[in-house]
Amino acid sequence: MKNFWESMFKEEKTTWGFEPSDSAILSKDFFLKMHAKEILIPGIGYGRNAKIFSEHGLNVTGIEISKTAIDLAKRTNGLDIKIHNGSVTEMPFDTKMYDGIFCYALIHLLSQNERKKFVKDCFRQLKPNGHMIFTVVSKKASMYGNGKQLSKDRYEVMDGLNVFFYNSDSVKQEFEKYGLVEFFEIDEPIKHMENEPPLKCILVKCKRTD
Q: Three-state SS across 6-73?
């Protein structure tokens, strides 16, 4: 996967534009309402979602596999924050505990075992009463079923890009024992491409209560 993401960013492409996702805006509002201070963003990319968190006074730490993306985050989005260079499958990168974790359109790119470890690792770095929010791609997305099927609900939608598609059952299966609070469908507009239909996603919210 590292080679795939390096190739995505090697020409310094800002593939998703610069506006934050609707999930990021909702999550920022929620974290502020919860009086969160420290936020971890695994898969921070070039920082389009992280910027709105920083602009509203949240202290952000990132994780990103692509060095090119990290450079873009600092140069094009002006993010003067700590970003660990590595895969989320190698978490944890520090011993810090966070008030909130926000992960956008990443977990569904991992294998089943990687997803299990990732959710567990995120949960372990939450402070008591902290929340973690994941935006995952839904089985209602138009690309569901495209490409080579690798396993149940998982497809190689393009060369080197494997995607697991969620529904309510798989959300419950993977998140329920990690403080699942709620989940709901969300249409994520591709804001820099006006004629593209929105991506069908599910926003998953969990809370650590121990």
A: HHHHCCCCCCCCCCCCHHHHHHHHHHHHCCCCEEEEECCCCCHHHHHHHHCCCEEEEEECCHHHHHHH
pLDDT at 116 exceeding the cut of 90: yes
pLDDT, tens digit, 9 for 90 and up, residues 50-61: 999 999 999 999
Burial class (CB in 10 A: 0-12, 13-18, 19+), 3: exposed
Tell me: pLDDT of 45 over 60: yes
Verify cis geometry, omega within 30 degrees of 0, for the bond prior to 189.
no
> Which residues have C-beta within 8 Å of that of residue 30, sequence separation ≥ 6?
131, 133, 205
Residue (of 46, 94, 101) closest to 74 by Cα position: 46
**96, pLDDT greater than 50:** yes
Contact 167, 176 (CB under 8 A): no
As a whole number of Å, the end-to-end CA separation of the chain is 34
* Number of residues that make up the chain: 210
Locate 8 and state its tokens.
């995505």
